[in-house]
Design brief:
The complex is a heterodimer of chains A (403) and B (115).
Chain A lengths: L2 H4 L2 H17 L4 H21 L6 H19 L5 H7 L9 H12 L6 H12 L4 H7 L4 H17 L9 H23 L3 E2 L5 H15 L7 H14 L2 H5 L18 H14 L7 H14 L8 H14 L3 H15 L1 H11 L6 H13 L3 H14 L1 E2 H15 L1
Parallel strand pairs in A: 1-2
Chain B lengths: L1 E8 L2 H5 L3 H20 L3 E6 L4 E5 L4 E5 L8 E9 L2 H8 L10 E6 L6
Antiparallel strand pairs in B: 1-5, 1-6, 2-5, 3-4
The chains are: A mainly alpha (403), B alpha+beta (115).
């Protein structure tokens, strides 16, 4: 196993194996399966750590885990399970990796489950995150993560959710749920709501990876998926540039564009082209188009503000979305001036929209040289965000205002 | 040079809570440490021990499953190293990853046939 392939191997293997075993033994056996897998990885950790990694590490994990499960079933004398298990001793097709993980992800995004439950299940089952990791990335306590996971798992078991990729009729709507969950995970990674991190790469990476797995399946390759992948590529391209300031928040306008990943941008463009081959446009299409405009500009000043405004104007006809309106105000400010932006802000946005409202209002007021009012806004924004790095950013804007 | 055996105990509680990602990271730490020992010619052999075994008494009159002692008492694995003396053997053991999980290392000299 080459070092590069090793990255996150245990984590991904966990998800894949979980899916294989749930398919074979049923979702009601999930607690046993989790234990068997944990034991299996633990043994791998010890023996491979001491000696070397076997030639077929997946087969090794599978064997240890299935022996463990079979032993357990024999001890409990589940007579009816045994003939079934005897059949299962042949190694599964490990080329089905993507299939298995996908089935699990679809199951975790079943409409009967709540959004947050789906997110936790996708992270724990699909991406093999541990509870500590989940508590850190979702910024909840370990105990809360444990409880929520337990509840989600119980629902998962009780609804008898089967691990199958849904048939045609249901496929599109389930796919949309999956895309939504993936995007929520990505967003949480890209702009963490709480804590003291600028971003959580892990989440972005897992979200993008999952979306690419979906894409590897011809019948799942919807234009919405392509748009989502494009959008995530464009944003991910900026991760390194955003991390440059240590723990300072670096705005788009201040980023060192030479650090933007040209590979990811190219990938994004490829997927964007695929997405726009069709004429049905979703939220993801508009969002990707916006990101595309920002990312292709040579400098912040050279951004195609008019083009962006057109996209936003079209988009807002289809959706009522406060954060859309707020992000549009920034574009209006650059395309048509701060006065116009201020008017539209008063018309279309409201204080109820949270800290983003005050952050943007502050920027507009600063452009209008109304510094005292700008400072007030930044103070309000600071008090409403839970992210420490954003708080410091607002301090910086206030200082600038006071100069 | 003398051979010494390390008997590893404990660390189970922490390991049970680990995520796959953390386990992988911990595996790398073991590999690195063992690799370093091997590189210096200090490593002879070692492997973890299976949890469930048998306890044999009176030449097989009594055979029970076990041992079922407290997690901290069961030997979880062993390592055999080359060292000048017990002082060096102890020094080498200080870098062992088991301490990250609050485990312990017992260092014992393996009696040599030579005088």
């Amino acid at each position: 196993m080459v070092k590069e392939k090793l990255d996150h191997w245990f984590r991904h293997e966990y998800g894949k194996m979980l899916s294989i075993f749930i398919t074979k033994f049923g979702a009601d056996k999930i607690d046993l399966i989790e234990d068997a897998l944990h034991e299996s990885l633990y043994r791998a950790m010890l023996t491979w750590g001491y000696k070397e990694i076997p030639n077929n590490p997946s087969a090794w994990i599978y064997k240890v885990a299935s022996n463990n499960l079979i032993d357990h079933f024999r001890k409990k004398a589940f007579q009816d399970d045994i003939p079934e298990i005897a059949e299962e001793l042949t190694d599964p097709e490990f080329s089905e990796i993507n299939d298995q993980t996908l089935k699990l992800i679809f199951a975790c995004c079943h409409p009967k489950l709540r959004e947050q439950e789906s997110i936790i299940l996708c992270l724990k089952f699909g991406a093999g995150f541990g509870l500590h990791e989940i508590s850190r990335v979702l910024f909840i306590t370990y105990e809360a993560a444990k409880k929520k996971f337990q509840r989600a798992k119980n629902h998962f078991k009780s609804y008898h959710i089967s691990l199958e990729i849904p048939g045609n009729k249901e496929l599109q709507s389930r796919l949309n749920s999956v895309l939504k969950v993936i995007f929520l995970i990505f967003t949480e990674g890209y702009r963490p709501t709480e804590g003291d991190q600028i971003l959580k790469e892990d989440l972005c990476f897992e979200a993008l990876r999952t979306a690419l797995i979906l894409h590897s399946h011809e019948n799942l390759r919807s234009s919405n998926l392509c748009a989502l992948i494009a959008l995530m590529c464009f944003k991910s391209a900026r991760i390194e540039a955003r991390m440059q300031g240590g723990d300072e928040f670096i705005r788009l306008r201040d980023q060192d564009r030479s650090l933007w990943s040209s590979e990811l941008i190219e990938e994004g463009n490829r997927f964007l082209a695929q997405a726009f081959k069709e004429h049905n446009h979703s939220e993801f299409h508009f969002h990707a188009a916006v990101e595309s405009q920002y990312i292709q500009a040579d400098t912040f000043e050279k951004t195609n503000w008019t083009g962006l405004l057109n996209i936003y104007n079209y988009w807002r006809k289809l959706t009522k979305n406060p954060s859309l309106e707020l992000n549009r105000i920034v574009v209006v400010m650059h395309a048509q001036g701060a006065e116009k932006a201020y008017e539209e802000l008063k018309q279309n946005c409201s204080e109820k929209n949270g800290y983003l409202f005050f952050a943007i209002k502050g920027e507009v007021l600063q452009q209008l040289n109304r510094h005292r009012e700008a400072t007030e806004c930044f103070l309000k924004a600071k008090s409403q965000t839970k992210n420490k790095i954003e708080k410091r950013f607002f301090d910086g804007r206030i200082k600038f205002s006071d100069l | 040079m003398t051979k010494f055996m390390y008997l590893f105990r404990g660390g189970d509680a922490r390991r049970a809570q680990q995520s796959p990602e953390e386990m992988q990271a911990h595996m790398e730490v073991w590999k690195t440490w063992m690799g370093a020992l091997a590189g210096k010619g200090q490593l002879v052999d070692g492997l973890p021990l299976g949890k469930e075994g048998k306890v044999v008494l009176s030449a097989g009159e009594t055979i029970t499953d076990g041992p079922f002692a407290e997690g901290n008492e069961i030997v979880g694995g062993y390592l055999i190293v080359n060292a000048r003396d017990i002082g060096e053997a102890v020094d080498i053991s200080k870098g062992c990853p088991i301490f990250e999980h609050e485990g312990t290392v017992e260092v014992r000299e393996i009696m040599s046939m030579d005088m």
